[in-house]
Design goal:
The chain has one domain: 2-Layer Sandwich (Alpha-Beta Plaits), CATH 3.30.70.1030. About 30% of the residues lie in helices and about 25% in strands. It has nine helices and twelve strands. Strands 7, 8, 9, 10, 11 and 12 form a six-stranded antiparallel beta sheet that branches. A hairpin with a 4-residue loop joins strand 3 and strand 4 (about 90-95). The radius of gyration is 19 Å and the shape is globular. Bound molecules: protoporphyrin IX containing FE (HEM).
């Protein structure tokens, strides 16, 4: 039987809650980690039963250093590493520490909150939550800058599995997925000050219709021109916007699942360093990456092994 992936291939729900946790210095993490693996399985099973149409899922990713600290199998997934910053002439994709990542989806805030609270209760003695972002579906699937986000994602079960899950290139980890996240803050005032036609040239698509600009019209520094590395190299993006008026923080939580991390890295290099070098992604003039971490989301079968169950 094929190994069963975590719910990495699910489509957007109305809400998402993203959390990054780091282990406390010197904490004995093994037993807690076992319980967390069992809890992740439990939360997903329970969600199917309680809310079959609720778009609920809980995906856990594990960072490189945590993998080693927890004594998980070696060799590691082939491309699991500590993310190295991508430094361009003007913008940098920073690297930040993350031991565990939780991607909680659901069509209501309540279920996301409950899953987060259950996980926190177990993790709290040995780890600290260093990032928590509440994402929401904004109108017809738009990012907070007003453009539909996700259109060119792989569609359909076969294509999503091909691009989202590790395949035969790394048999020990088949069915797992590389999970890369970045928290972006937008300078919305500056972006909104652009005429809509100019905003469209930043993304490379028309704002209201979401139709792609034709070749020859789309600028070479448009986001969709530089992020596209070919039809045979795609990733599954599940970004969501977030916003906080009191802190004047409007952003995008970028989250991607991929069969190989090198695909994501190539996208980041083209965006931040540019192609050719210096021709960087114009979206970055309005969006800065505040975090950047690579995780690996093992299959449910592996989580079961890790839980000792
Ligand atoms: C500020 C953060 C970001 C925002 C607001 C954003 C938004 C968008 C939007 C509006 C589109 C066009 C519609 C679509 O196909 O989804 C798009 C396309 C895309 N983005 Fe992003 N994005 C962000 C960061 C990234 C990053 C960091 C990557 C890769 C590491 C990336 C990869 C892609 C890809 C592969 C496409 C499809 C390109 C194509 O084939 O046309 N995006 N993004």
């Amino acid at each position: 039987m094929d190994p069963q992936p975590q719910n990495v291939l699910d489509y957007h729900s109305a809400n998402a809650l993203y959390m990054v946790w780091n282990f406390k210095e010197g904490a004995a993490v093994q037993d807690v980690f076992k319980r967390v693996c069992a809890l992740v399985i439990n939360l997903n099973h329970s969600a199917y039963t309680r809310f079959p149409d609720g778009g609920v899922s809980c995906v856990m990713g594990i960072g490189h250093d945590a993998w080693l600290q927890l004594g998980l199998p070696v060799p590691l997934p082939k491309e699991l590493e500590n993310f190295e910053p991508v430094v361009g002439q003007k913008h940098t994709a920073v690297s930040t520490k993350g031991d565990l990542h939780f991607h909680l989806r659901g069509n209501s805030d309540s279920i996301c909150y409950d899953m987060a609270a259950d996980l926190s209760a177990v993790l709290d003695p040995v780890a600290a939550c260093v990032e928590e972002v509440h994402g929401f579906r904004y109108w017809d699937g738009r990012s907070i800058i007003g453009f539909v986000d996700g259109t060119e994602n792989p569609q359909g079960a076969g294509e999503r599995a091909y691009f989202g899950l590790v395949g035969d290139a790394d048999p020990a980890y088949r069915g797992g997925s590389y999970l890369f996240v970045q928290k972006y803050m937008h300078d919305l005032a500056a972006f909104k000050a652009l005429p809509v036609e100019e905003q469209e040239r930043v993304i490379g698509r028309y704002k209201y219709s979401d139709v792609e600009m034709p070749d020859g019209v789309k600028p070479g520094n448009a986001h969709s021109a530089l992020a596209n590395v070919g039809d045979d190299r795609k990733i599954i993006r599940d970004n969501m916007p977030f916003g906080n008026m009191a802190r004047n923080e409007m952003g995008t939580y970028f989250i991607a699942y991929a069969s190989t991390f090198s695909t994501v890295k190539e996208m980041l290099t083209r965006m931040f360093t540019g192609d050719p070098e210096g021709n960087y992604d114009r979206l970055l003039d309005f969006s800065s990456a505040k975090t950047g971490t690579l995780f690996f989301a093992p299959t449910l079968d592996m989580l079961k092994d890790f839980s000792g169950g």
